Amino acid sequence: DTTVKQNPRYKLARVGKPVNLICSQTMNHDTMYWYQKKPNQAPKLLLFYYDKILNREADTFEKFQSSRPNNSFCSLYIGSAGLEYSAMYLCASSGDWGASYEQYFGPGTRLTVL
Amino acid sequence: QQNVQQSPESLIVPEGARTSLNCTFSDSASQYFWWYRQHSGKAPKALMSIFSNGEKEEGRFTIHLNKASLHFSLHIRDSQPSDSALYLCAVSKLASSGSWQLIFGSGTQLTVMP
Q1: Residue pLDDT, tens place only, B36-56
Q2: In sequence order, what are the residues at sequence separation of 6 or more whose Cβ sits closer than 8 angstroms to the Cβ of residue B85?
Q3: Is the C or the N end of chain B the one with fewer CB within 10 Å?
Q4: Tens digit of each residue's pLDDT (9 = 90 or more) over B1-17
Q5: Could you tell me the strand order of the sheet in which A19-25 lies?
Q6: Tens digits of per-residue pLDDT, A29-73?
Q7: Measured between beta carbons, which residues in chain A are less than 8 angstroms from residue B36?
Q8: Quick one: which of B50, B44, B42 has its CA closest to B72?
Q9: Counting runs of H as helices and runs of E as strands, what totals does chain B give?
Q10: Residue B100: is its pLDDT beyond 60?
Q11: Residue A2 has pLDDT above 70, yes or no
């Protein structure tokens, strides 16, 4: 089973309010990723966990938080949503972080901030 | 800074046509090259990858890589309506953290008309 699940599929949030997105995988993968995708733009890596170690991209360091309470689950947390956070958020996992390892994606959570 | 560009942005072809999608990258040290496919409302899924110069064929799909010209492509033989999807190319990049990351292009939206 190569399923990555994301909840919720759609999320409506108010400006200034917090948002928490959930991802789960049952493949016992060591690495889990979060991407942000806006229309007509490339998916942008926000952060990833290798085992329990969190790596955040420099330009999104202060905007997104994450936790990984166990191997299967990973969350993405926005403390105070702004209009610019409206996007599709994709979670992915891979068996390792090497160049040759395929990333398995979930269907995404579409976040709309009003 | 790795830059990945895809062309065309969108493409409409008749059923049975041969379709070509292109991707250029800027970092000659890139090692793995991927094509992902995302059907509407579904998760992106890896289609094919290539490591060395040349071509690789899997069924109706062929991937070409020319590292010297910083270019790789996906060719679809006998295109089918079920091939209609967003095609994302991606290049593996070694980050400063020592881990490999995928840098995506913004995608080509392919529509195959019956």
Answers
A1: 999 999 999 999 999 999 999
A2: B37, B38, B39, B40, B109, B110
A3: N
A4: 679 999 999 999 999 99
A5: A4-7, A19-25, A73-78, A65-70
A6: 999 999 999 999 999 999 999 889 998 888 887 899 999 999 999
A7: 105
A8: B50
A9: 0, 11
A10: yes
A11: no
Mean pLDDT for chain A overall? 93
For residue B86, count other CB atoms closer than 10 A to its CB.
17
Report how many Cβ contacts below 8 Å link chain A to chain B. Answer: 55
Of the candidates A40, A41, A105, which has its C-beta nearest B45's C-beta? A105
Identify which of B62, B68, B66, B63 has the alpha carbon closest to the alpha carbon of residue B53. B66
Of B99, B102, B107, the CB nearest to A103: B102
pLDDT band at A97; cut points 50, 70, 90: low
- Shortest Cα distance from B62 to chain A (angstroms)? 18
Main-chain phi, psi angles of A64, to 5 degrees: -130, 140
Which residues of A44-96 form beta strands (DSSP E)? 44-50, 53-56, 65-70, 73-78, 87-94
Gyration radius of chain A over CA positions: 13
Report yes or no: A90 at the B interface, CB cutoff 8 Å: yes
| Contact state of A98 with B100 under an 8 Å Cβ cutoff | yes
Does residue A39 have a cis bond before it (omega within 30 degrees)?
A: no
